[in-house]
Amino acid sequence: MENVTEEPAVKYNHFSPEEYLAMEREATEKHEYYQGEIFVMTGASREHNEIFSNLFTEIGYKLKGKGCKPYGADFRTHVQKNTLYTYPDMLIICGEPELTDNHFDTVTNPSVIIEILSKSTRDYDIGKKFMLYRDIPSLKEYIVVDSEKMFVQNNTKIADKSWQMTEYNEADESLIINTVQIGISLKDIYKAVTFK
After folding, report:
1. How many domains in the chain?
2. 89: closest CA among 117, 130, 119, 124?
3. N or C: which end of the chain has fewer CB within 10 A?
């Protein structure tokens, strides 16, 4: 019997955005879409979930009454310029969400995107994904939070449309989210997180 593991990977036909959305709305797991290809998204570690919970709680509390709201990873984001559909770990949207259609599940206007890095996504999130996110006109800050060590990087769009990077790696430092004028200490971001 022929060993199928030696066969080349199956190449699927490209899907249209409409086909992707129809399948995704029926799917039990999340998928990313980019230029006709669909990619399954992996699950999150305990550390990832602790960091998400800490950030979401702190940001939600500090944004009360400010006209901006945090949203979790179930709110799909579409980058119209380059076709990407994905699920950032967290978004901050100022004003009303701008939606792609009447399904109310895909937004196009995040002001801040936060991704929590894992071993398998680190290079993609810091590299190509950040490049793709930069095509979102409303995006002012892109923040990555490492789940394997105490490290936060904030990329802020400045007046000339270039990006300025600030890094934090001490418990007594505070991540400043300039767009919404709030600060969160790394000690609070990493509360209950143990590194292996």
Report:
1. 1
2. 117
3. N
Structure tokens at 22: 């129809």
Residue 96 lies in a domain: yes
68 close to 3: Cβ distance less than 8 angstroms: no
Q: Which residues pair with 85 in a beta bridge?
A: 33, 78
In a domain, residue 194? The reply is no
Q: Is 23 part of any domain?
A: no
| CA dihedral sign of residues 115, 117, 118, 119 | positive
**119 inside domain:** yes
Q: Range of 51's domain?
A: 45-189
pTM of the model as a whole: 0.90
pLDDT tens digits along 92-110: 999 999 999 888 899 999 9
Tell how strand 106-107 and strand 76-78 pair up: parallel
Residue partners of 54: CB distance under 8 A and separation at least 6: 188, 189, 190, 191, 192, 193
Question: What are the tens digits of pLDDT across the range 65-91?
Answer: 999 999 998 899 999 999 999 999 999
